[in-house]
Amino acid sequence: MSENPTPEIIEPSDGARNTRRTGKVSSRTIEHYVAPLEETPLLAVDFVDETAEPQSMWSQAWRSLRKRPLFIISAFLILLVIVVAAFPQLFSHVDPTACRLDDSSETARAGHPLGFTLQGCDVYSRIIYGARASFLVGLFTTIIVVVFGGVVGALAGYYGGWLDAVLARLGDIFFALPLILGAIIVMQLPAFRDNRSVWTVIITLAAFGWPQMARITRGAVIEARGADFVTASRALGLSKFRALVNHVIPNSLSPVIVIATISLGTYIVAEATLSFLGIGLPPEIMSWGNDISNAQTQLRNNPETLMWPALALSITVLSFIMLGDAVRDALDPKARKG
Amino acid sequence: MFMFISKRFLQLIPVFLGATLLVYFLVFATPGDPIAALSGGKPMAPAVEEALRAQYNLDQPFWIQYGLYLKSLVTFDLGQTFSGQEVSDVLGRAFPVTARLAIMALAFEAVFGVIFGVIAGMRKGKLFDSTVLVASLIVIAVPTFVLGFVLQFFVGVKLDWAKPTVGVGAPWGDLILPAAVLGLVSLAYVIRLTRTSIIENKNADYVRTATAKGLSRRRVVSVHILRNSLIPVVTFLGADLGSLMGGAIVTEGIFNVPGVGNLLFKAIKAGETPTVVAVVGVLVLIFVLANLVVDLLYAWLDPRIRYV
Amino acid sequence: MTEQTKERGLNPADNQQPLLEIKNLAITFDTPDGPVNAVRNAHLTVMPGETVAIVGESGSGKSTTALSAIGLLPGNGRVSGGQIIFDGEDITHASEKRIIELRGNSIGMVPQDPMSNLNPVWKIGFQVKETLKANGLAGNNSKERVAQVLADAGLPDAKRRANQYPHEFSGGMRQRALIAIGLACSPRLLIADEPTSALDVTVQQQILDHLDTMTTELGTAVLLITHDLGLAAERAEKVVVMYKGQVVESGPALEILRNPQHPYTQRLVASAPSLASKRLQSKPLEVAEDLNAVVKPEHPRNTDNVLEIKDLTKVFKIRKGLGRSEDFTAVDNVSFSVKRGTTTAIVGESGSGKSTVAQMVLNLLKPTAGSIAFDGAQMNNLSEKELFTFRRRVQPIFQDPYGSLDPMFSIYRTIEEPLRIHGIGDAKSRQARVKELLSQVSLPSATMHRFPNELSGGQRQRIAIARALALQPEVIICDEAVSALDVLVQAQILKLLNELQENLGLTYLFITHDLAVVREIADDVCVMQNGRIVEQSTTDEVFNNPKSDYTRNLLAAIPGSTLLI
Question: Which residues touch C274 (CB under 8 Å, ≥6 apart)?
């Protein structure tokens, strides 16, 4: 229903309908030009080009993606991080926990390409073994946020009404607490402080990360639910809920995928920040955040012990953000033909 | 317009109540004895414990506790720290420092963010644009504390262009480097937002119409493209002021700035839960008020909003 | 401005030299897939004071050609050949400074979409004033000038209106403001790019009349861009027909209309709905007349009314903030019936409530009052199961071909979906059925592997028709089903609908704003205004002998309707 705030002004049509408009005739002579037919051949109206290969939206996006250098680089780096996180022993034969104070702050030497920390641990090996915790936090936080925030946002957007109003206020409340601030409060609760693990960090980050995803999904669902094809399928007899699952959600996925990819990176940063503040992962878990935190005291004497894990962290995060950017461009409806 | 303001104001009240309730509930009503938490798990005399319970109203039912907490926030009578100082005094000293820091950071990201964003957007696809885009991605990817350390080390220590840590009283000059670090991530977002917005508006129909009127290029850009593009940016900046105050924890820690973040962090480390709850409550209040200001600003910038 | 006009009038030499001359123009767009020639070999001349119309379908290059004259090509477009001569001066590659000088006071523009062409954050007066200022015409009393310019464009109460924002204006008022801006500096040439195609016909007619009067007064030449041949012939002295980036024919307007030479123009003239005078022939005329005799609303003895709508009313609550709301009656006491195997059109302008009626008939919206009977059965309180059966028998086709197909579904899945929902057949028989349906809408069966984004608007609309036909419905509700299509494609789809009706005995409820289309497809017509039916009768009766003033206005407003061909 569109409501027009200001109705059209209709002028009193005195005589307008009595005058028969008969067209204008120029006093000048106007040449009647006809283009030669061979130069302007007439094509059949609206024919189907049967030569082109059929393409779904996803296959089109994939075609456009795989040609982008940004995508190739970031996808390669992310694959590498995943393999490292899954099989760290393939990349380093040095035990990251076998630290000898004799090696304290030693520089690089054969077998130890990046030198040693203050405690005499091998920096390279710690980076390799630290990937797992950082990556898992990012991955599981994103999964929880997408599932929970996505479901909440989709239901709120699709059904609207009081459900939407309540969920919107709930989202606002969580928004009023910045992620780090909220995480600090939760992480120092006795229940969390005494049982710190990868999971407490994941739960905390997810608790303050879901409203953003809910908002994005809600917006996308509201846009999709008004489409004619949803009305058409309802008119075909599809139930309201099935229409949500079959039509609305698949058409709302693009922004969710993009934001999820980028968020995965930012959650890794958030974990590192919490660890840096001493309230993230427990010290016995090897992670980039913990290593950076430990190295900060040595910044002036041995900056490399801080730089290397920071570099690993930054490149990983950058890969996810770049991947998200590339996917966004590929899925952009404006860039697609249609 | 009055309707709009009052409506937005009314909508913020439940947000404020909800957020403070959330914090209060998390801290005081979750499993685990808050008094034990207050002492950091060390045993304490029963008399001291009783006194503490009374002081923090823990002997009252939950809703009364929360009500008293709200009252303390609104009257700014925030209780005492463990060392016996008034929280409002401590906060009163720390707050101006953080406010100064946040405002400088905001100015930094607004000025450079808009300038770079506009140039990048107007020259989409050119070298400047690509460079700025990649740089902004890197800034977002590198954690603030790493950036903080690196800049502190190079600019502060190696090059000696700025003081690596902030001196007594936190003078403006000392805050330049911390403010830049604090604003850096938001700067990247402002650049990207401005750029997207400019690109979108550059191709808008009304810009073409404005050009067709015979306006100079300069006027088309400043009156028609810029003003419309800055609406989302201003909204972002307003909301960001609140997050900057909250996000100052890391930066203030690195540069040893005696601000709210530092205060909060020390209180958390020391397990001073009442202080934490009080300070967070004040921050939520600021955040909510900042959002109200953003709404008003938004309505002022975009006439279409005013009558909704 | 009067001085200028006089000056021009005094100089007879002006009449000899063309005001705008485009010679062999070629325009190229640089796209990621390489350069695309949007326009080639285009040539046209506009004499001072003359109105020239460029006619073509979307993508024919008509706007691109016209906009190149004031250097308004999109960023990736450039003039790659030929010449643009304005008043004897070659401006093909003129400096930006020179083009800016020309814009506004020598060449003005009225753009297409009034909704997006005014900057939403500035007041109307401001946007007019800056036009005057940029061309040094603001003078000392710019407020008065602005009000005068707006009043000239037919905006009542101009002083107060100048102080308002675009969103406080209706579409027609915005278009008047845009005309005011375009003509504010009395340009010698006005480029009017589909200036009224987004507006209702009656508003369109008034605005074009006004534009006509103003340009005649000022002696301004007009380059009118339109997709509507009837409108072009009625408003211009000369018509230029463009097809696929080339000029295929040009000449005196009426001559082109009456004696088209190029096959494309011939096709265009033959399909223009505004010029057509009778119903597409899907059945022998005698039968049609018989039907006309039978359909009399007073005689409910007719058992073959598929749809009977009685006293249908829909009231919406419009929220006015803070819990207050206002009633808005979108559909007010509407009654009509639709006879099996025929087409009934509901015609009305925007806000007339016609689409709301369609939604209620489709059972997608609950009526506030009144009844809808389908095949004798009341629809008010259908059970889930009955509703499900009803869905099989009544199907919709929507306006926007880009929105009515799920972009994630292949064509096969799109057409198969209704069969699957209703559990008809197995995978194999469903595939055979999809092929059959595709051939019914004249598309190759290989189309089923494709996705909507690979098809044109007309093809998508065919798919939507195939989907609607899948369940072998009895009634199809076409909600502006051809309004978004180009003329030739529109004619094809209408023909297809007509053939399907003949072969399958379908009944159509045809919702449209376009009376011209009604004449081609409908047997009976209901004319709606502000939620009420103001006139209902057979199509011939409505066209030949309209009873209400409103219908007469609508008929008179069809562009080209009064041209003698």
Answer: C228, C229, C230, C231, C516, C558, C559, C560, C561
